[in-house]
Amino acid sequence: MSRSESATTLAPAADGPDAAATGPAAPSRRWIVDLVLLGALWGASFLFMRIAAPEFGALPAATMRVAIATLVLVPLMLLRDQGPALLRHWKPMLGIGILNSGLPFALFCFALLTLTSGAASVLNATVPLFGALVAWAWFGERPSGARIAGLVIGFIGVAMLASRSVGFHADAAGSLRAPLLAIGASLGACVCYAISASAARRHLAGLPSLASAAGSQIGATLFLAVPALLTWPTRLPSAQAWLAVAVLGIASTGFAYVLFFRLIETAGPARALTVTFLVPVFAVAYGAVFLHERVTSWMLLCAGVIICGVSLSTGLVRPRLARRGG
C-alpha cells in the first residue's frame, strides 16, 4: 500500500492512486499555510462540539453542523458550475455523506458528552489506522511488517488512553459504562471515516471536489434531519451554543472542506494526510485555554504512541533495516 493509498483515509475525493506517489509539486509553500489552518479549524471542531452537544443533544448538534455546512457549500458549488456533477452522481454522494459526516459527527457529539475535547481529538488520530485496515480488506492492499507494527502500536495507544480517566469529564470518571461507550463511539466514528474514504475512492474518483463535498453534506443532513427533530431540546439552547454550531458548520466544516480539497490539489494526498497530527495539538490547546480541560503527561504520552503508530502504518515513517557489511 502506497502513501497515497493510505492518504485516502482522509481524502473523500482523492485524485487517483498515483496522485501522492508522484506528488503534485506545490508551486510554493502556500500549502503549509493551508495545512496549519486546516489543522486549526478541525481542531476547533472538537471545542465547538463540546460546547454545543450538551445543550442541543448529540443528534441535533450534528444536524445543525451539516445543515449549515450545506448552506455554505451548495452556493459555492453552483458558482463553480459543479451542480451537474452532483445531479449525475447524487446516489453515491448521499450515501458517502452518511458515512463521512452524518454518522461520525453524531458519534463524536455523543462521545463529547463524556470525553474532553482533547481526548476525543487524540482518538480521532486513529483514522489512518482504520483506513489501513479497510484498504487491506477492501482493496487487498497487504501492509508491510512495519505497517502492521504501526497498527499494533496505534491501538496500544488507544488502550492506554482508555485505561485511565484523565480524558473524561469529572462526573463520568467514576463510572465505567459511560467512558467505554464514549470511546467506542469515537472509534466508531473513525471507522466510518475510513470506510467512507475507501468508498469515495471507488465511487467518486475524478469528480469535482465541491460537488462531492456539497453532496455529502446534503446526504448527511437528510440522514440526520428526522432523528434530530425527534430529539430536539425542549429548552432553548444558549446563545453560546448557537454560536458554536454556527462556527462549527461555517468554518470547521464548510470552509474546512474547501480548504482540504485545495490542499489535496496543491500538495497531494500524502502531505494532506499530515493534518492528522496537527488536529490533536490544536484541540488539546483549545480545550485547555477555553474549557479549562486538564492536560496530563499521560494523555500526551498516549497521543505520542498513537501518532507513532499512525506514522508507521501510513508509511510516513519508514524504518531502514541495517545492512550487513561485506
Structure, briefly:
It is built from 15 helices and no strands.
What does this protein structure show overall?
The structure is a single chain. With 326 residues, this protein is mainly alpha-helical. The protein has one domain. The chain has 15 helices and no strands. It is globular and about 50 Å long. Residues 1-27 have low confidence and may be disordered.
Strand content: under 5%
Count of separate structural domains = 1
Helix/strand/pairing class, anyone?
mainly alpha
Number of helical elements: 15
**Oligomeric form:** single chain
Give the C-alpha Rg. Answer: 19 Å
Which shape, going by the Cα principal axes? Answer: globular
Q: Give average pLDDT, whole number.
A: 82
Q: Tags for this entry?
A:
15 helices, single chain, mainly alpha, 326 residues
Helix and strand topology:
Layout: H1 3-7, H2 19-22, H3 30-56, H4 58-79, H5 83-88, H6 90-111, H7 117-124, H8 127-139, H9 145-162, H10 177-203, H11 209-230, H12 239-267, H13 269-273, H14 275-290, H15 297-313
Helix pairs in contact: 3-4, 3-7, 3-12, 3-14, 4-6, 4-11, 4-12, 6-10, 6-11, 7-14, 8-10, 9-15
